[in-house]
Write a sequence for this structure.
């Protein structure tokens, strides 16, 4: 799957376009950035309901390619600017967290931390 | 002698800017061609420590020394100090206020996380005076 495939699957609106052709294999969903920093390894997509600049910073530290805001949430101008200089794609999906994660999983994306 | 020395002041009153220094160090290491794993470990550990500085200590100063085989980061603050370092190192233990939790932090993962991602970690802390954290990440070329 590539970043732009997420658009159709999640009926997502692209807010900031990074590399839409970048390949993605894994994703994680969390509103707790501490947990993203603690448990995530090589996930390229972050799904979150949290809207503040630290979401973009966290994605930056983790080398993530795309942030998807669930429940129709949208980032503010500061966040968009931050993501722009880091080539991170920002999207907003109307789906809630559980459904958004489920849709991506059923389309082949994995968590990257199978037990 | 380090190859490159960088110093950053971390502002204590603006949580939205926390992580700026870590981002700058990350892009510097990227430009210098350090391996991805080492860069990420430095970035995450420094970012967590920077967040801690803003949450608990009203900011501070970060010194970064970049060597060919390691990156050393020293974070010094004049905050309240850590009463019980051993307790603070436990996963899930947090003294962060609720407003910080609403921002996605304060899960009690900061210090354990820094330890996990670094090769060396040392905390000097004096109550009422401040805390200095020394972290080292070894770089495999």
């Amino acid at each position: 799957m590539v970043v732009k495939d997420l658009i159709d699957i999640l009926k997502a609106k692209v807010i900031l376009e990074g590399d839409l052709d970048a390949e993605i294999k894994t994703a994680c969903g969390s509103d707790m950035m501490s947990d993203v920093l603690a448990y995530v390894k090589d996930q390229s997509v972050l799904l979150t309901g949290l809207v503040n600049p630290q979401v973009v910073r966290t994605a930056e530290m983790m080398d993530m390619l795309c942030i998807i805001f669930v429940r129709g949430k949208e980032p503010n101008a500061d966040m968009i600017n931050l993501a722009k200089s880091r080539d991170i794609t920002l999207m907003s999906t109307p789906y809630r967290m559980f459904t958004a994660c489920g849709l991506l999983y059923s389309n082949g994306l994995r968590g990257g931390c199978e037990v | 002698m380090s190859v490159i020395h960088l110093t950053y002041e971390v502002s204590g009153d603006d949580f939205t800017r926390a992580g700026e220094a870590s981002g700058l160090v990350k892009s510097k290491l990227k430009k210098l061609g350090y391996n991805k794993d080492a860069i990420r470990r430095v970035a995450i550990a420094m970012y967590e420590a920077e967040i801690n500085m803003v949450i608990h200590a009203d900011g501070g100063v970060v010194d970064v020394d970049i060597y060919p085989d390691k990156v050393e980061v020293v974070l010094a603050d004049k905050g309240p100090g850590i009463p019980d370092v051993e307790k603070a190192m436990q996963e899930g233990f947090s003294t962060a206020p609720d407003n910080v939790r609403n921002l996605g932090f304060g899960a009690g993962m900061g210090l354990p996380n820094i330890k996990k991602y670094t090769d060396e970690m040392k905390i000097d802390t004096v109550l009422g005076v401040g805390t200095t954290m020394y972290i080292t990440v070894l770089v495999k070329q």
